Amino acid sequence: MANASRYQLYFSRKDSAFESSRQGVRMREKPRKKHKGKNPPEAAGAGSSSGPGAEGVPEKPPFFGLEKMPVEVGAQAPDTRRGKPPRKNISTLEVPGGEILIENYCPVEKLDTLAVDEGICMFSRHNPERQKKALLNVAGSEDGNVVAASLGERLVGYIGVHHPSEGERWGKAGYPWMFELGAIEVSRNFRESGMSMAMMHAAWDDPFYDDKVVLTTAFTWHWDLEATGMNKLEYRELFIELAGRFGFMEMATDEPNVTMDSANLFLVRLGRDTTFSQYQKFASLLFTNEWEAMLRGF
């Protein structure tokens, strides 16, 4: 078996530090630029697509994040565990227009009755029916999870979690314990309300993901820079801060869409009960270049 130290990820960022334990990841944050309003700006954060290139940003570390994750010693048998069952989370959020209902595993039948708010536009390119169809597909898929934020009969925010597409390198392996945070978006009409944090709690305060590996890609061409008034570096740090609160850490990969823009993000969440075997299998997918993978210790 490979040395257990291979299961440690070393970070080199100057502006943040991660501490880890079996209870999760805690991030010590440095003071950063304050934004108007009670909460930081919220917008589209993650997604899967391709798009244009961009300006340069500071060089990314090879990978950084967790240390001292649980290590299994001995022969690794095929992992056929189903883990813990999903947990339904429901909460409410008071906003000037009323009370927003936030729930995970939103049923397809309910989702189908909701009208997509006009402020949801970043992933669908101002095509609400297209966005609704995508969310219905996620909700109806195996182990799919749509966190829906609704105000009356309107959908004003959402998160989509699903198995990676079979057309991507992450999905080709067919690992049942691998998931993707496909998208998170808050309507432009309800930014700075705390909705993104509430939806993330609904998604990840769920023991079902304790033994799962969840990845997400955050591409600059999905970021609402116009409405937030932020530049790419500011938006990038905003999403790292939000996702980091729920155990996501940045990792390097040679996946073409991620490397297309140096501001793009590839983040990974290792559940507290994931095994060394799962980590090894996932890490083997990060680089297709054999030499690059060897240099980085995979």
Provide the fold topology.
Blueprint: E1 16-21, E2 24-29, E3 90-95, E4 98-103, H1 108-113, E5 115-116, H2 128-140, E6 145-151, E7 154-162, H3 169-172, E8 178-186, H4 195-204, E9 213-218, H5 225-228, H6 232-244, E10 248-250, H7 256-259, E11 265-270, H8 276-283, H9 290-295
Parallel strand pairs: 5-7, 8-9
Antiparallel strand pairs: 1-2, 3-4, 4-6, 6-7, 7-8, 9-11, 10-11
Q: Kindly report the name of the CATH homologous superfamily.
A: Gcn5-related N-acetyltransferase (GNAT)
Structural class: alpha+beta
Give the CATH class: Alpha Beta
Strand content: 15-25%
The CATH architecture term is 3-Layer(aba) Sandwich
Helix percent band: 10-25%
CATH topology: Aminopeptidase
How large, in whole angstroms, is the Cα Rg?
Answer: 19 Å
- Helix and strand run: EEEEHEHEEHEHEHHEHEHH
Straight-line N-to-C gap: 13 Å
Report the major sheet: 9 strands, mixed
Question: What coarse outline follows from CA principal-axis ratios?
Answer: globular
- Into how many domains do the coordinates divide? 1
Structure commentary:
Helices cover 23% and strands 22% of the residues. The protein is an alpha+beta fold and 298 residues long. The chain has a single domain (37-47, 87-295), classed as Gcn5-related N-acetyltransferase (GNAT) (Aminopeptidase, 3-Layer(aba) Sandwich), CATH 3.40.630.30. The longest helix is centred in the middle third of the chain and has 13 residues, at 128-140. The protein starts with 15 loop residues before the first strand and ends with a helix. The relative contact order is 0.21. The model is unreliable at 1-40 and 48-80 (pLDDT under 50).
